[in-house]
Design brief:
2 copies of one chain form a homodimer. The first copy, chain A, is mostly helical. Chain A has 9 helices and no strands. The first copy, chain A, has one domain: Ferritin, core subunit, four-helix bundle (Ferritin). The model of chain A has no long low-confidence stretch (mean pLDDT 84). Chains A and B meet through α1, α2 and α3 of A and α1, α2 and α3 of B.
Chain lengths: 218, 218
């Protein structure tokens, strides 16, 4: 792959990450308004603040590469906003499931991406994906809610399936619209479909694992 | 003032500060959704994240004092939410004016409070009130908007007056409802009204100064 295409791919990847982190900041602070206690509200605000610091890290890296962060991010805000507009949680528990399932899938995706990167970008991508505390917080609260009222499990399992469907459809749109990013992620040419299939299978396995952690049928 | 009343006053003050910072986090992230560009959206998210880190600092201090942060904050969320519910910005510029004028008045108020505190709490209060970058950002954007369309100045000046009226009415409610906090702020007994009057006069002067900085009539 020629140098310019590789660096276009990296700027695309960082733009996607920065955009996702900033959207996650706004989404977590939206979900925090549904929090039943001040402590939960503070916890969500803390997660949002952590997303912002990740965003800030990637934005700095884009600037270091001579890219305009706003330009690098712009192509991805449409699909990300579309995903979130189609999956507005109707209550606190749906918000937690979304934070856990959605961010978990996103993290898996980025980890898969990191494997094909050079050491510098790989370290950065893995660092900004460090768990910001969503996972255990969401698992504890969702399991407690199911223990208190087992019938919420069915509704939340359906909700999680809808999240996955919407996420995959937006991810396909992103990849189809950004050839340099697609090349970076799955290589070009004949092997592309096979690579993509392997990646999706990994994502689906990890998702099933997360659903069991929440106490939900996958 | 007896020891228990003094520490009740400090816990009350920290509860008020923590509550205000957490509410500010959520309000700034709400206002950020109105931002016209990705860069502005990122700037508001950064300010919100700074508010969260101040909140986190005060929460740690409440825990160190053996107080429950949720309990210390609870009495203040009503008036703070009422203030924000009555002053929802209808656009990006109103949001900026609110961030600048509202946070400026809040900071003046806390600085006045800091003067009557012991050195330890005083340093903490002054530190968490360090400007988080709202001021210059808001001034630059509001002045540019007025330069581009001078007739927005009248609307924004009215809006700022409404903000001040609502803020003072909620501040009076907070002080009336919390005698230990009132004692801490204005002393007890005969001098109370005089002290309060002096504090309001200082706040009003500083407000007039901020309105001129924005290019608005006060």
């Amino acid at each position: 792959m020629p140098e310019s295409s590789a660096s276009e791919g990296i700027v695309g990847l960082y733009g996607l990450l920065a955009s996702a982190e900033l959207v996650a900041f706004y989404r977590l602070s939206d979900d925090g308004k549904l929090a039943p206690t001040l402590a939960d509200k503070a916890a969500l605000a803390g997660m949002a603040a952590a997303e912002f610091s990740h965003f800030d890290r990637i934005r700095g890296e884009l600037e270091r590469l001579g890219a305009d962060p706003g330009q690098a991010m712009a192509p991805f805000t449409g699909p990300l906003d579309a995903f979130h507009a189609r999956t507005v949680p109707s209550d606190w528990l749906e918000g937690l499931v979304k934070a856990y399932v959605g961010d978990g899938m996103a993290a898996d995706f980025y980890r898969a991406v990191a494997e094909v990167l050079d050491p510098g970008p790989r370290t950065l991508v893995l660092e900004v994906l460090a768990d910001t505390g969503h996972a255990q917080f969401a698992v504890d609260h969702v399991r407690a809610a199911i223990a208190a009222d087992p019938k919420v499990a069915g509704r939340l399992a359906l909700w999680a399936r809808r999240l996955v469907g919407e996420a995959l459809s937006q991810a396909q749109r992103v990849i189809a619209d950004h050839p340099p990013l697609a090349d970076l992620l799955v290589g070009d040419g004949a092997s592309q479909l096979g690579e993509m299939g392997r990646m999706l299978a990994q994502l689906t396995d990890a998702h099933a694992h997360r659903m069991r952690a929440l106490g939900l049928a996958d």
